[in-house]
Amino acid sequence: MSRRPTRPARLFASALAAGALLTTAACSQDGGPAAADAAERAGTASAAAREAAEPVTGTSPSPAPLTEAGAKAALITEGDIEDQWNQVPDADKWRDTMLVGKVDVADFLTAKSQAADCQRLLDGLYSEDLLGKPSGPSAVTGFEQGESRLLEQVAAYDRGKLDDALKWLGSLPGACDQFTATGSSGGERTVQVTESSVPDVGDARQGVHVAVRGTSAGTPTTLTLDVAVVRVGTDAVVVTGGGLDGGETDSVRQAAGQGTERLQTVLAGRTPSPHPPTD
């Protein structure tokens, strides 16, 4: 006959069994060290998968630099502007002698630099490089309607010089409010410069309205021009419109808006709509 264990021995055995059960339960609930490592690895992989699946926000691809082909593609067409504008092939050769003149410094008693700004305005309008010479590709197109002309240029510029040119253009209504210029034949012209509105497009924009009053062939004549400049990155759209029939504010605004849209499309790597003329 075997001997029964004593009471202390039975109590010790029961305590060991209870401890083993508690340990087993804890391992089943917490997963133990190995299970914890596996869970951590699974969580990391899941988070990585979520990050890969979620779109990246706050960044956008840099626009492609403007090329010669891109500058030409960004130019507006007859279908982009209303009225009866007809495109012409020699717009880059347009020059208006009403813009040729030497600014009278005596009109500016407080600052001769203002006279230089006004001279720069006349010279820039005549030579069609109001913002200065482009630093990269450029393209020009022009349209005629009666005695009015509409000229658009798309070009790449140095960013700092472009910003300075826009700031200078914005200062002209104050600096060149009204002044006198003397033409090559000795005739005097009165020039008035006021601010002109530009559509809220692009990264920055500026506009001016210029009226030049004088004589042509002995007849009193007024040349009226509206100018709109829109910056898109380091590129710019410049639209000048008007003539002896008066300003072309609406057409200039429309051309600036459409031209900016076409330039942005080109810089995004897409092809602008051809906008065919409608009858």
Protein architecture, described:
This protein has six helices and nine strands; from the N terminus they run αααββαββαβββββα. It has 279 residues and is an alpha+beta fold. A nine-stranded antiparallel beta sheet has the order 1-3-4-9-8-7-6-5-2, sandwiched between helices. Helix 1 runs parallel beside helix 2, helix 3 (68-74) packs across helix 6 and helix 4 (112-127) crosses helix 5 (159-175). It starts with 6 loop residues before the first helix and ends in a 12-residue tail after the last helix. Mean pLDDT is 80; it is low at 1-36, 38-42 and 44-60.
What would a concise description of this structure say?
The protein has helices at 7-30, 32-53, 68-74, 112-127, 159-175, 249-267; strands at residues 86-88, 102-103, 138-145, 148-156, 178-182, 188-195, 204-216, 219-232, 235-243. By secondary structure, the chain is of the alpha+beta class.
The main β sheet shows up as: 9 strands, antiparallel
Major β-sheet strand ordering: 1-3-4-9-8-7-6-5-2
Oligomer: single chain
Structural class, by secondary structure, is: alpha+beta
**Amino-to-carboxy terminus distance:** 121 Å
CA radius of gyration is: 37 Å
Q: Tell me the overall shape.
A: globular
Poorly predicted sequence stretches spanning 5 or more consecutive residues: 1-36, 38-42, 44-60
Number of DSSP strand runs:
9
Order of helices and strands: HHHEEHEEHEEEEEH
Number of helical elements = 6
DSSP strand content: 25-35%
State the helicity in percent bands.
25-40%
Mean pLDDT: 80
